[in-house]
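Incident log, structure service

09:12 report received: a user says their structure output differs between two submissions of the same chain.
09:20 pulled the input from the user's history:
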Amino acid sequence: MSPNTILVYSEKPALLRELLGEARRQAIAVGWKVAALVLGKNVSALADLGADVLYQIDVDDRNPELVTAALTTAIAQAQPVVLLVGATKLGMEVTPRVSERLGAGYAAWVVGFQFDPVTQSTAAQCMLYTGTGIATYGFKPGLAILTIAPGVFEAGPAADKAADIVVLEVAGTASKMTILEYKPKPASGARLEEARLVVDVGQGVKQREDLQMIQTLADMLDGQLACSRPIASDRDWFPEWLGLSGAKIKPELCLTVGVSGAIQHIVGIRDSHLIAAVNTDEGAAIFSQADYGVVADLYEFIPALMERIKARSIHPVWMA
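09:34 re-ran on a clean worker, output below:
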């Protein structure tokens, strides 16, 4: 392909759509091309996502050594100025390898980027200090590799024209790594990043059985249940969490229940249109980030709230 190309990769289809959406928006503005790398055989389902070319390489996308080799092969073919990679566990593992192997520039947790079509130099804005600051990095002309978390950009509409599919082969696909077992991650239902209302629970919830009450509230409001990291990683109540190392959401309303408000967690919910917090501690950090705060025992507040919702037949506007 032409060197005026943006190459995109993520093993997560929803995140791939988001990255392609932003790549397409920026490419149209300067007349560039967009290419995407797809590993495995399921390529046709992704042909209308906005890429001009899909590079197909049939390797196991669970093996970081093979993914690194595949990305290197696709870069050699596409000659991109920018490579966008989803900031998943896999993406964060393979991108430094590719950067070191090719001597390319690298930036993580990117929230915005621009490139100069004349000099082919790139600038990227990245989260700093757990999201409390933004650092801008400038890259000299040449390949810049940027990792981007889910929810940073919006997916674009389906393309009018299907992408051309180019099959590539990776030389020497033998891996030094032996994978002994795969354990699928438990499904958590619909994507949190797409929820319009989220009830976010923290360590103020005492027992796992108490989640049923909070789930009932979320169901009444057509919302989803989410949690802070300790609830998922320490108590093992959820398969994923909100925060710097977890999902980032931007719903119409985020209702936090028993959440203290550590900055690492705030990074995951701060883009919510409205944040309402319930906590017994009036000095809790969450209140400095919330639009509305209620100092109350969640075990008293939630039943009272559900009673009012039922009595007044309250429902979100999107349920009308």
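09:41 both user submissions now match this output. Likely a transient worker issue. Closing.
09:42 reviewer note: Residues 13-30 form the longest helix (18 residues). The chain has two domains: 5-167, 192-319.
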